[in-house]
Amino acid sequence: MAVSLGLGAALALAPAAQLAAQGPSAQALADRAVIEDLLTRYYNNFGGGVESKVGEFYAEDGEMILGPTHYKGIEAIKGAYAAVPASAPQRSAYALNILINNMLVTVHGATATARLVFTETITEKQGEAPKILTQGREFDHLVKRKGRWLIASRQIMGAKGEPEGWQD
Fold this sequence. Notes:
The protein is about 30% helix and about 40% strand. The chain contains 4 helices and 6 strands, in the order H-H-E-E-H-H-E-E-E-E. The protein has helices at about 1-20, 25-45, 75-80, 90, and strands spanning about 60-65, 70, 95-110, 110-125, 130-145, 150-155.
């Protein structure tokens, strides 16, 4: 009787053990946390001179894609940010805040993908309520180089759709 109960319990727990074994590794979970932190820190620099810090987030050969325009390399990406006119709402407003959510990070060893939704808000004058400026989606390819996660490619799109051939 005790043998049959033990066998029954083992069989009942087998699917749970299989699921646990198929889950992400501890390293993949740690990498995912580091990538989420990297992207959160990147967005926290907006409104405060992100172009000067691009080298901290992108691989040297990294690329930023805005619509049909590709900016390849850190200097080109810095140039894209520096080219935003002072009269643009993101620069002329009292405050710019970018909310990020629905982040999905998938780690594949030394590479990873990330997708998220961003919402840009501006406060035109101190004390005023914020206004939504725009919302869109971001699709990233990341690489781990010398033990550090960096953005290899960052594609910014409108509120709907995904890049052709995108796979998480």
